[in-house]
């Protein structure tokens, strides 16, 4: 039986200090855990359009999409993660996020060790060379 796949996008954004943008998820999967901002691609949207919309809705930031970094499958979701650059806006949690923040390398490692990140996020970003650099 073929399971219907749901196309999603995620944003990998680093600030000028090399910190990674994360949001705390309000809803399942992963409610209460930290993840990359992103969400479902709506009918008629391109990945870039969805990424710009989702980043604005979840973080309050306007972004310029960059290259595709990788694709992961999580349950019924095919998540296409793109580098992006925040160009304007004020960081604030919204939509499906209860919090949004820039995270340094040390903070990211501590979040990973404490179980605060969605499963497999740290390993995936490490394999893509997309961890915070500060």
TrEMBL record:
Q: Which Pfam families match?
A: NUDIX
Q: Which InterPro entries match?
A: Nudix_hydrolase, NUDIX_hydrolase-like_dom_sf, NUDIX_hydrolase_CS, NUDIX_hydrolase_dom
What are the record keywords, sorted? Hydrolase
**Transmembrane: present as a keyword of the record?**
no
Query: Can you name this protein?
Result: Mutator protein MutT
Q: Which organism is it from?
A: Amycolatopsis magusensis
The UniProt entry's sequence similarity note says: Belongs to the Nudix hydrolase family.
- Keyword Hydrolase applies: yes
The record places domain Nudix hydrolase at 4-125
Cofactors (names): Mg(2+)
């Amino acid at each position: 039986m073929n399971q219907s796949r749901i196309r999603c996008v995620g944003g990998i954004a680093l600030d000028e200090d090399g910190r990674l943008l994360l949001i705390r998820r309000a809803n399942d999967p992963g409610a209460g855990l930290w993840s990359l901002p992103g969400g479902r691609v709506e009918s008629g949207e391109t990945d870039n359009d969805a990424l710009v919309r989702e980043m604005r809705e979840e973080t309050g930031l306007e972004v310029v999409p960059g290259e595709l970094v990788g694709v992961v499958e999580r349950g019924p979701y095919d998540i296409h993660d793109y580098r992006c650059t925040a160009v304007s806006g004020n960081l604030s949690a919204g939509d499906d996020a209860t919090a949004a923040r820039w995270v340094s390398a040390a903070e990211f490692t501590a979040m990973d060790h404490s179980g605060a990140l969605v499963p497999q996020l740290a390993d995936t970003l490490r394999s893509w060379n997309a961890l915070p650099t500060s």
